Amino acid sequence: xxxxxxxxxxxxxxxxxxxxxxxxxxxxxxxxxxxxxxxxxxxxxxxxxxxxxxxxxxxxxxxxxxxxxxxxxxxxxxxxxxxxxxxxxxxxxxxxxxxxxxxxxxxxxxxxxxxxxxxxxxxxxxxxxxxxxxxxxxxxxxxxxxxxxxxxxxxxxxxxxxxxxxxxxxxxxxxxxxxxxxxxxxxxxxxxxxxxxxxxxxxxxxxxxxxxxxxxxxxxxxxxxxxxxxxxxxxxxxxxxxxxxxxxxxxxxxxxxxxxxxxxxxxxxxxxxxxxxxxxxxxxxxxxxxxxxxxxxxxxxxxxxxxxxxxxxxxxxxxxxxxxxxxxxxxxxxxxxxxxxxxx
Length: 344
Ligand code: NAD
Ligand code: TYD
Description:
By secondary structure, this protein is of the alpha/beta class. The protein is about 45% helix and about 15% strand.
């Protein structure tokens, strides 16, 4: 493993992973392949380009475009593909599912075909705990559990997962998969709940909490997730799926209170708004399998949220640009009615 193609490397987790890998492995070269959708942002990689320019290349392209994928594979003699590229926001998948199916399902197929054609050492698929669907109290998902995806986002990710496993079975494609829980940390697009709440709170804007706010997520620090992918790339078994999270769930209202406490802002900023349709109430992962590879989450929820809040306070140059563009249209469309009819 020397030449890695990092698809979606200009997004939140992909850019953190790129920085992490270049810092850790001084003999690795990374090629970022990214379409630069609304969520892709070269600002996320600015420091990386400056620091590791000789071991880093950026190519703009679409994973659902076979010719573009072929060209990058050939030009850079890639031996490993790590696929982060995806449409990722559940609410947008309810508004416009089309791009989700094209990128998360068809794009995965295009990359798997390229993996076969060029005989890569490893194809790693970055997946999500959302493919298991809503998890009842008392259970934590095992890698062998059936998939019960319920949103267009999670259904398209589940489709990608199944394709990867089918390529392993049918063609011996050397795939590994991780199913990660919710990430938080630097460079997360402020449509996801934590950066949305932090940046709104900084500006004394309301925090739109869906329904009763008692839904549960396993919020993990993005660098723990990156380390987990690294461990699976180097020590994971081909053809296997690994859950990747802290194993600890937090209610959204508890997460929101933590953000407001850290920023010294009043709880009166919280607004209970109309719920997301089909909202999965709880995700929960059993992470014994990846722990057996020697990986442990390094950040508790309190540490992860504190570091995250600090980063958004210190890096307003990064998110203020985003929040002043097309983002405003999206925000109005999704939250306008919700906030107008909200209760505190
Ligand atoms: P993100 O939305 O921040 O970034 C996605 C990146 O993919 C962007 O840079 C975008 O430009 C790029 N992209 C989108 N469509 C593309 C296409 N057709 N071709 C090439 N590039 C394309 O997403 P993220 O939060 O960094 O998530 C990365 C991966 O991790 C996704 O596969 C997601 O499903 C998975 N994941 C995310 C989380 C989370 O909490 N964010 C948790 C578990 C798994
Ligand atoms: P989100 O960041 O969209 O991730 P997920 O893919 O897990 O849905 O949302 C995380 C949780 O926060 C989820 O339970 C929905 C909730 N949420 C809100 O309460 N308000 C919001 O404005 C958003 C975006 C999410």
